Amino acid sequence: MQTWIRNRYLICSGNFFIFETLDYTAVERFEECVTSLGGSLITVNPIKKVWIGNHRQILLYQAKASLHTPHHDLKQYWFKYGSLHTRFDETP
């Protein structure tokens, strides 16, 4: 999860983590990570199509998880290395 935070695939909002990816298998890995930390996946939605190169569009998936981690340093890690926007946000 730390790699996803550093690479702006994962953002934190309160006790929720929002993960965006073009690869659905990454959503499955995200769910495994969240479950192993005692959280749960709430929703997974295809939110838009993203252009890859000039000729191909791929679905962007957004997964939202509830993760209450008062004794875990994951949220502190996000404060230090994370961002308020994912790499797929159109706003800077």
Count of helical stretches: 3
Report the biggest beta sheet as strand number plus sense, adding barrel if it closes.
4 strands, antiparallel
Shape: globular
Mean pLDDT: 89
Strand order of the largest sheet: 1-2-4-3
What is the CATH architecture assignment? Roll
Structure description:
It is a single chain. Helix content is 28%, strand content 37%. It has 92 residues and is α+β, with helices and mostly antiparallel strands. It is built from 3 helices and 4 strands; from the N terminus they run αββαββα. The model has no long low-confidence stretch (mean pLDDT 89). The radius of gyration is 13 Å and the shape is globular. 15% of the residues are buried. The two termini are 22 Å apart. It has a single domain, classed as Endonuclease I-creI (Roll). It has a 4-stranded antiparallel beta sheet with strand order 1-2-4-3.
How would the blueprint of this fold be written?
Elements: H1 2-6, E1 10-13, E2 16-21, H2 24-36, E3 40-52, E4 56-66, H3 74-81
Antiparallel strand pairs: 1-2, 2-4, 3-4
Using brief descriptors, characterize the structure shown.
Endonuclease I-creI; globular; 92 residues; four-stranded antiparallel sheet; alpha+beta
